[in-house]
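Lecture 7 notes: from sequence to structure.
We start with the chain below.
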Amino acid sequence: MQRFYVETLGCPKNDVDSDKLVGALLADGMSPTDDAAEADLVVVNTCAFIDTARKESVDTILALDEQRRDGSRLVVTGCMAERYGDELADALPEVDQVAGFGQAFNLVPAERDGTELPTGAASPRKLIPVSSVPLPAFDLLNLPRPKSASPWAYVKIAEGCDRSCGFCAIPSFRGPQRSRDVESIVEEVRQTEAREIVLVAQDLASYGKDRPDELGAGSIVPLIDAVAAETDRVRLLYLYPSDLTDELIDSVLRTGVPYFDLSLQHVSKRLLRRMRRWGDGQRFLDRIADIREREPAAAFRSNFIVGYPGETEEDHDQLLDFVERAQLDWCGFFAYSDEDGTYAADLDGHVEADLMHRRLAELREMQDDITATRRDALIGTSLQVLVDAPGVGRSHLEAPEIDGVIHLPSDLAQGELVTVEIVDALGPDLVAAGVDVSAPDDDQLDAMDDNPNDSAARVG
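Predicted structure tokens for the same chain:
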């Protein structure tokens, strides 16, 4: 039996695509391995959101090429493959195939289908005729999903984006928004068998707007209610602030997971308009205050671009003031980078790199203190926690793989929902009663290595 290894980079949406690829490979009769050196097929699902993510993707491809054994195949897919396919193939002769995610490629070697290959030739890939929809409208959304290896799972409810944010190239290669049927999403939720479902999309709150007649007049609320009926927890990532209606807020609160991941990007009204985005700092603060009045235990996360062309010291001061006043639980800050084909790439007023990084450091230091203070305030409280793995879990306050964790007694079984008392805080992490923080186990040490306020590769 042939073995495969999949490496996933970037945001949770890429995690979903990789899960779909894994499901397809399992259906083809292959088996997974955690060691790229033992794999017959090595797949890298790349990220192309910002320059640092692209560099990480290329570095990972080259590292895995060195690790893989002779005769194995190295396939590159994901955002970089879709956006820079021909260039990537020319620049990386080590790669056997570059395949965009819209191609739904068949990773079973052609010789298994009876195709005779020249000696020493690489096996060509063939497209799977699984849809009559023209490429790239077909995508991995339609593939089945394997059971989740964790008690939580990301589920992508739509692909593409109809917005035209000045800094973002995603619509150029992910295409316009394409919302899935409620029934197909609910069926995927069942396939995961997860106790927490995290709904993701490029523009989550716009779900259904491309299919208003079929999907409840373009509202995500019926979908949230349908998913909540199938699992213990529902969490939403990436909410555009103008779409955060009272109806949507109420539906999130009904799930019992009052977690609001707001895609703000900046707070200066002048700069936001230059970004081609809605809102301003005061509107954002008012909405956050409104939610906290309804649910004092609500958690908030956002991400901000630093150094967007034209950002002045006054704009930066407005962002600093907002961060101090908003007291968000989690924040990611990342440096602006030019993206080919975007509106912002041609703007004047580019910020010097040294100044940009000084601004980043100032914001990150402030937010780290806020996060630590908010975590300290939880000492002495009780929280319901989902046990992600022995010794590690999360409450409603923490999204998986992005925020801090809660260190738990190691005898709690994976997948349990338990109520624990918080007795200590370690920066972004919390410690439950019964845990010896002086001697953390390997899982706890791995969790501590993650910085929840430095997640630029996870946004988009």
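Points to note: The mean pLDDT is 84. The CA atoms of residues 54 and 446 lie 24 Å apart.
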